[in-house]
Amino acid sequence: LVTYIVIHIRGMSHHSALTHSNPSYPQLVLLDHGLYVRLSDDFRKEWSTLWARGLLRGDYTAVEKITKKWGVGLPDMFASVTLSKPVKLSRKDRDMKEEQERLRRELTEYMGMSQYEQSVVMKKKLKAFLQDTDKMPKELVFLMRNMRCVYHVLFLEGENRKLISTVCAGSYKATTNPSAHP
């Protein structure tokens, strides 16, 4: 929870040391407090909106609006990477049954391809995903690394990482919007 508060409320992201968990061999991990990255107010607002409006609700349009600004295509893939699990965002113009059938066909076709053909497909997907890396906020790279570490710990503890991050994102929105307080 503290990590999410530091990200959403304080606007900082720490890049934790790489640790290897082996219960048989305890280890001492020193944190270098020079590894903080200050998140700009614009980025924090976008990140919090992404969580509070897009990822929590599974809203394709909200995620697409922010990812497009960041030079990232394929909002569904971005949501999946961010949440560390496969996600299909909801769209008003998308029939989910039809979408699932299309994905099933694509997967079946993909599994029948040679390794080379699969690599060509993946390269096309990556190109569609990373549309304009010049627009991508540099903080995003560090923040995603930080989130991976936190997600892993929360997963091991059985905590709901999506809910915790969304609550903190909502807290940021409330602290920056005085009219949100009764």
Following the backbone from N to C, one meets helices and strands in this order, namely HEEHHHHHHH
The portion of residues forming beta strands comes to under 5%
Largest beta sheet: strand ordering: 1-2
Give helix % range.
55-70%
Mean pLDDT: 77
> Mind summarizing the main beta sheet?
2 strands, antiparallel
Shape: globular
The overall number of domains is: 1
Structural class: mainly alpha
Number of helices: 8
pLDDT < 50 runs, ≥5 residues:
178-182
Distance between termini? 25 Å
| CA-based gyration radius | 19 Å
Q: How many β strands by DSSP? A: 2
Quick description:
The protein is mostly helical and 182 residues long.
Describe the fold and architecture.
Mean pLDDT is 77; it is low at 178-182. The protein is mostly helical and 182 residues long. It has a two-stranded antiparallel ribbon with strand order 1-2. The two termini are 25 Å apart. The protein has one domain. Helix 1 runs parallel beside helix 8 (161-176) and helix 3 (60-69) packs across helix 4. It has helices at 2-10, 41-55, 60-69, 75-83, 96-111, 115-129, 138-157, 161-176, and strands at residues 12-14, 36-38.
Keywords for this entry:
mainly alpha, 182 residues, 3% strand, disordered C terminus, 8 helices, two-stranded antiparallel ribbon, globular
Topology of helices and strands:
Blueprint lengths: L1 H9 L1 E3 L21 E3 L2 H15 L4 H10 L5 H9 L12 H16 L3 H15 L8 H20 L3 H16 L6
Antiparallel strand pairs: 1-2
Helix pairs in contact: 1-8, 2-3, 2-8, 3-4
